[in-house]
Each structure stands twice: as structure tokens, then as C-alpha cells.
Amino acid sequence: MAHEPSAVERAYFVIGQWMGGGCIDIWRVEKAPSDPTERSRLHDEYSEDAEDAFGSVEIVYATSEDTAAERARQEARETSERIQREVPRAPGTQQPFENPYPSIPLARTRPPTIPSGRPTTRTAPPTRKDSP
């Protein structure tokens, strides 16, 4: 459902990343320029930067930065609910855009172990002493 701005609301850039399932990780909220040309130019510039970090920039009309952030979260929830209603799925399959890997392994802080349980320290294949 699109929100129609009122006379007291203004445009804000809400910059962040949609995490799926109606969640949005908001990185920054700031007032957008009132001039449509400048707003469009700045939106394009911010969008390009956000895309490099797998994010996006939305223009939200609100009375404050906090209200803009909350409105963006609400719009993300509504979009997720609409997608879940509209995208058919077979029984037993995961939700659309649901993360299939809920736990991402932590970075290794020590060398991997080989089946014997001893740490592996070799980084290059062994060399033959009788090679030229």
C-alpha cells in the first residue's frame, strides 16, 4: 500500500538492506532535497553506492527521521506479506527469500584439521629433492 504524503511530511532517504521476511537493516536516514531534480540526482548517487554494499535507497515521506525509518520498516513488512500471499509454494518448502543457511560459520581462527585430528600446517605441495 503506497503512502500519500501529507502537507507536513517531507522526503527522506532511507538507506539500508532488505533482509527478507519483512526485516530491513537501516544504515542511515537523512532528509532528501526538496528540489525534485537534486533529489533524483542524489538518489541515483546514493543508490549506486548502496548497491555496491548490496543495499538500496528508498524515498519515504514522513515528519521526522524516526518516522521515516519506521515507515520503511512497515513497507518492508507489507511487501514481504504481499510476496508470501502472491508467490505459490509447495508444501514443505521454505518461504520466499528465507535464508536457507540460518547459521553462517565463523571465520576460522586456527588451521583446519585433517582426519587424524592433527592440525594442517602445509600450505604448498611438497617438492621432490631430485627435481631439477
Please provide a brief summary of the model:
It contains 2 helices and 3 strands, in the order ββαβα.
Give a verbal description of the structure:
This protein is α+β, with helices and mostly antiparallel strands. The protein is built from 2 helices and 3 strands; from the N terminus they run ββαβα. Strands 2-1-3 form a 3-stranded antiparallel β-sheet. A hairpin with a 2-residue loop joins strand 1 and strand 2 (23-31).
Helical content (DSSP H or I, runs of 4+): 25-40%
H/E element sequence: EEHEH
**Sheet having the most strands:** 3 strands, antiparallel
| Class per helix and strand makeup | alpha+beta
Mean pLDDT: 74
Work out the radius of gyration. 24 Å
How many strands appear in the DSSP assignment?
3
How big a fraction of the residues is strand?
A: 15-25%
Shape: globular
